[in-house]
Amino acid sequence: MDSLTGRTAVVTGAASGIGRAITERFAAESMNLVLADVEEGPLASTTAALVGAGARAVAALTDVTSVASVQSLLEVARTEFGNVHVLCNNAGVGPPAEQQLWLNTPNDWRWTFGVNVFGVANGLHVFVPHMVDHGEEGHIVNTSSPDGGIVAMPSAAVYASSKAAVVTMTECLHHQLRELGSRVGASVLLPAGGLLLTGLWTADRNRPEALSRERPRARPPVTAEDFRRHLAEQGHDLPVMALEEVASWVVDGILTDRFWLLPDGMLDDEVRGRAEAIISRKEPYLHRAGI
User: Fold this and answer.
1) Which of 120, 141, 186, 279 has its CA 20 to 30 A from that of 248?
2) Per-residue confidence (pLDDT) for residue 235, from 0 to 100
3) What is the 3-state secondary structure (H, E, C) of 32-87?
4) 208: helix, strand or coil
5) Which of 26, 159, 201, 260 is flagged as catalytic?
6) How far apart are CA 37 and CA 159, in angstroms?
7) What is the pLDDT of residue 228?
8) 285 is catalytic
9) Is residue 132 classed exposed, middle or buried when 0-12, 13-18 and 19+ CB atoms within 10 A define those classes?
10) What per-residue confidence (pLDDT) applies to 291?
11) What angle do CA 187, 181, 164 make, to 5 degrees?
């Protein structure tokens, strides 16, 4: 895409964190914005703030685990602005994980994969036919994580497994769109570079009662500050990553049709470590602190 001005973007998980930063960056590019989130209050306030700053933005309360809800999101976008040109499947959850993956309950897996994997799949199922059929330039950005998307993170096995799936989904999407000769591109976002202060740390606030844990947790949940303090005790100084910078990777990646959305040189050691472990048939590369 040569320009984002006047184009329409749909962003899920847009009420806070990375999603909000992306919408603010898109607003600076003079895009039409459709903000989707499952949290009604924060969604309304974020949208109001954008509109108050002069952006063309509307809110759509959306549960990405529901195909019908995502279909309604598309209808809101089309009614308000016409064709959709950019889709950011950004909604995600990171439930507090047990140290051993087998101690996580089936509902931990159902909820995490329902949002992080099926949420992306639902977005693709609903929006890709529309974006391909209208024939204009477009782009899809799926938010993954280095934790799973590049290397394993044993301390968050459920979350990391879901994010590994998002990378593979996006790679397949990229190749299929190219084979189709479509004008729609695809990218995977891998937020990294420091501690990300997002709502992911407290995602349990949105956990459906029907998917609650089947037994009490063996250990208390870890907050962002808990995690940072734990690393500091081990001698690791983890800086806070500006979400605005992550959002800039998205805009730059769309305009340059870049698949891997993270800066050159970032996480290269982790990529090499994983590749070398596979080539040499060694044990899996171990996630380093602060990735």
Assistant:
1) 120
2) 79
3) EEEEEECCHHHHHHHHHHHHHCCCEEEEEECCCCCHHHHHHHHHHHHHHHCCCCEE
4) coil
5) 159
6) 19
7) 76
8) no
9) middle
10) 43
11) 30
Question: Which string of b and e fits 43-59 if b means at least 16 CB within 10 Å?
Answer: beebbeebeeeebbbbb
Neighbours of 223 (CB within 10 A): 12
Domain ranges of the chain: 8-222+238-267
The answer to whether the CB of 93 falls within 8 A of the CB of 16 is no
198 vs 244: CA distance, rounded Å: 12
Letter for the amino acid at 263? P
Three-class DSSP category at 1: coil
CATH of 8-222+238-267, one of 3.40.50.720, 3.10.450.50, 3.40.50.300, 3.30.420.280: 3.40.50.720
CA distance to 78, 115, 180, per residue, from 75 (Å): 5, 21, 25
What CA–CA distance (Å, rounded) separates 142 from 162? 12
pLDDT of the residue at 289:
52
Q: Hey, how many other C-beta atoms are within 10 angstroms of the C-beta on 203?
A: 19
> Which residue ranges in the chain fall short of pLDDT 50?
290-291
